[in-house]
Design goal:
Layout: H1 2-13, H2 18-25, H3 29-41, E1 45-51, E2 61-66, E3 72-78, E4 82-88, E5 94-101, H4 108-126, E6 133-140, H5 151-160, E7 166-171, H6 172-184, E8 190-195, E9 199-205, E10 208-209, H7 253-260, H8 264-288, E11 292-297, H9 303-317, E12 325-330, H10 334-345
Parallel strand pairs: 3-6, 6-7, 8-11, 11-12
Antiparallel strand pairs: 1-2, 3-4, 4-5, 8-9, 9-10
């Protein structure tokens, strides 16, 4: 725990002396001296400066910072339309990125092959020493292959057979939530809802991603909100689920602009789609009691209009004594891949400790 505490403190506060580290982490001086020496020898830290002091004030102090090229991780976001891959570091910097079309997959083995090719390509583009790559994190939609309930585990096992580095495969919305957790540097609970081809949900509870007993937590997009409607969700195959009414081809910047201009059809359509999302959110706020809810999408300049519609509809479904705050935020597509990289790098930092 002390190693993670030290690396987290330097990551948050920047270049630090050993005294700074002790003050910010409560690690004992003797322990900090040994840890800094070891982490520097292992490549996690480097000394970047020396603070000269008058002899009467004690010896000079060496300033340490996170090493720029270790540890590195590959993060991969496999969305229904496109696949993004990045090489990232402990500060969340992107060393290289690639984007390729996502093909149709017959099975989990095909996904593993596709992801492995993307990982190799982005490592080559980053000109990174493979020895510096500590692992590969992959974010997938749960229904990328419909008939595989253990999709994450099967893809990870297939990739591990051919790779020596660590492989972590998880839900792509959790990757986005983890990237937000990194940005917030807080262990306050929140829900991150992402709207792309589908609707994803990542839950951060007390600074930890919530996965559920069988790793199926967060399937908000497949909650049935309109039973009996015609048609089926192209991803899960069910009828009436949230993704049939809310996705990035249905809730668009053009729709919001038209509703903002007062066009009756657009106003009615926006209200209907906001109602569907609010219906799903009512289950979230009443079951989890998580107050902070972020909805990330490409809404354009009129995103607040959709937020107001969702809040109004939610007030009809959720009791007024259950507190919640809904904030619409711009969707940053690269954050999915970056968060996937943090599936691996999460082993090296923990904001609960500092």
């Amino acid at each position: 725990a002390n190693e993670r505490k030290l690396l987290t403190a330097v990551g948050i506060h920047g270049p630090s002396t050993k005294r700074d580290i002790c003050r910010k982490t409560s690690i004992a001086w003797a322990t900090a001296v040994k840890l800094v020496r070891r982490l520097e020898s292992e490549g996690f830290l480097r000394h970047v400066d020396v603070i000269e002091r008058p002899r009467v004030q004690g010896p000079d102090s060496t300033v340490f910072d996170l090493a720029p090229d270790y540890p590195l991780a590959v993060g991969i976001d496999v969305e229904y339309a496109n696949t993004r891959a990045v090489v990232t570091d402990l500060r969340g910097g992107v060393r290289a990125s690639v984007r390729t079309p996502t093909p149709s997959f017959a099975d989990a083995e095909a996904i593993a092959r596709h992801v492995a090719l993307a990982a190799d390509e982005v490592v080559d583009r980053a000109s990174a020493d493979p020895e510096r790559i500590v692992g590969t994190g992959v974010g997938l939609p749960r229904f990328l292959v419909q008939d595989e309930p253990r999709l994450f585990e099967v893809v990870a096992a297939a990739m591990t057979r051919d790779r020596s580095d660590r492989v972590v495969v998880d839900d792509v919305a959790r990757a986005y939530a983890l990237a937000m957790e990194f940005d917030r540097r807080s262990h306050r609970s929140f829900a991150a809802i992402t709207i792309r081809s589908g609707v994803g949900l990542g839950l951060s509870v007390d600074g930890r991603l919530f996965r559920g007993d069988s790793n199926h937590a967060g399937l908000l997009g497949h909650l049935v909100v309109r039973p009996g409607v015609s048609g089926r969700c192209p991803h899960c195959g069910r009828s009436g689920c949230l993704e049939q009414f809310v996705n990035d081809t249905l809730v668009t910047a053009d729709l919001l602009a038209a509703a903002s201009a007062g066009q009756p059809d657009a106003v009615a359509e926006l209200a209907d789609r906001a109602d569907a999302l609010a219906h799903a959110l009512s289950f979230l706020v009443m079951v989890t009691n998580i107050e902070e809810i972020f909805v990330a999408a490409h809404f354009g300049p009129h995103g607040d209009l959709f937020a107001d519609s969702v809040r109004s509809a939610l007030s009809r479904y959720a009791p007024p004594f259950v507190p919640h705050r809904i904030e619409m935020i711009p969707l940053c597509d690269d954050r999915f891949a970056l968060g996937a990289g943090f599936f691996v790098l999460r082993d090296y930092f923990n904001y609960e400790l500092v």
